[in-house]
Amino acid sequence: MNRFQSDQWSLGQGLTPSITSSFTLSLEKGHSKEISKGIIYSAKCGLGWRFTVAATNADTELGDKSSGNVIITLQKTQFEFSFDPHIINNTDLKNLTISTTVERMTPLLSDYNPSKAISLPTPKWPRMSLGRFNSEENYTGRVTVTFQVDLPTTFNLSLPVGLPPSRIRQVLGDSLMGHDLIDTEFILFTRRTRKHQPAKPRAIFGNSHLLRGFSSYLDILLDGNGYKESTEVDLGSNSFDDIPIDDYSYLSDSDLDSDDEDEKTSPVTTPAQTPSPIPTPIQTPLDPAPMPSQTPPPDLAPPRTPPSERTNLRPDKEPSNNTHLESGKNSATSWAPPHVGKAGRRIVVNDTAFKTWKSFMFYLYTGKLEFRPLGQSRWKEVHSASPGIPKCSPKSMFRLADKIDLPELQRLALDAIRRSLTKENILDELFSTFTSMYPKVQEIEIEFLTANLTADLFQQFKKKLKLVVAGDYPHSFDILSDLIEKMCNGGVHILPSPKGKMKKGRVLRPPQ
């Protein structure tokens, strides 16, 4: 039993994590070389389990020997596949569901279950049969067997993400022949003006070959295909005058820096003064500008700024973004790296903040991701637990992951939102416009509130209800409906009145 490809890690409906392993078996005139060799174990798969196969001869004969008729032998092999938990048998992983898919084989219906539930740990004989199958008569060639192991939704599994080494080698190899490492720039807004308009567009650079294959949404943007968001330009040009500002539908995005926030926390500065404390972007081979210690060949490098003029372009600092846009128009003074001067594709991402997209691309490249706690502003970010990894809001990333259909990234963001919930912020988060748009977020926040409902928090909840009735939260119907249903199921009973009407019974389990 040979591995057909590397394990495939994915999230299915309901964010159920699954790991799929595929194998091939060789047949010659219906017979397998593994016949009568006993139990054969695969290499370790997934989190450490294995699969086994045992092959036996299952030939059948057609004809009657006693009557002298010609005997026809139909050669075939019977395979029995089993699951061996191996090193995970005594772990916290309790329940698995395994689906078996085969080609050119017929299952024996007496013991075949296409989706088998398994409970761990198993008894002394750990292997569990997944079914027996007869091969196609007299077939010569390879057959494929696929096992999909579904893990519990409660199992906190981080799926492997990042660039395959082969793709990185190909891009670096192409660069040796003169191909550019940077061929795409994404334009995104960094700020929100006092008039609630997006402003200060800025570029993030990338390599289209490295970014393909993660999301069909991203692939469509990279291909262009006539979309107005994608055009051919000179990369690194600092002309953003034609960037539309009317398509940004999430102006409460916490990854957009606010002019009002700056006014309260920091004086307005110019680019020549002290730079703002935005975390430094990590320098990678894909960065448009080289590190100051590196000297690229003159014919390949953009013109370098003289050292005396590079005050705000040091690797440990970024230029200030404190020049405000009151009108919401896109200023040509927005910071950009030195003009690269090579043609490439410009993609305008109208509905996502610069910080969110930067973290997203860093995640695609490296598999690394770091979130800010809910409500934390950029001015509080002095030290990072993981230097070099850009931070973003988990809500902004959840919204992006939902839009581009990346379930694993969505799960990571949802977990970060869950970890950031506190008794101090739960009501503001629960009744936010963001929460009203996503049932999964509503679910975890309602669960947190009902599990942590103290007397003080209940009084704050009643004040929030007054604002709901006053019309301050017109988007909160679904949230209130689900919350009331959960509270009723947990201790509030609806009792019929003697007159046939319904009235609310007493609270059997008041907040403590």
TrEMBL record:
Output compositional bias ranges, type Polar residues: 320-334
Question: In what ranges is there compositional bias, type Pro residues?
Answer: 274-306
Query: Which portions of the chain have biased composition (kind: Acidic residues)?
Result: 254-263
Disordered: annotated segments:
244-340
Name listed for the protein in its UniProt record: BTB/POZ domain-containing protein
Q: Which organism's genome codes for this protein?
A: Collybia nuda
Lineage, opening ranks? Eukaryota, Fungi, Dikarya, Basidiomycota, Agaricomycotina
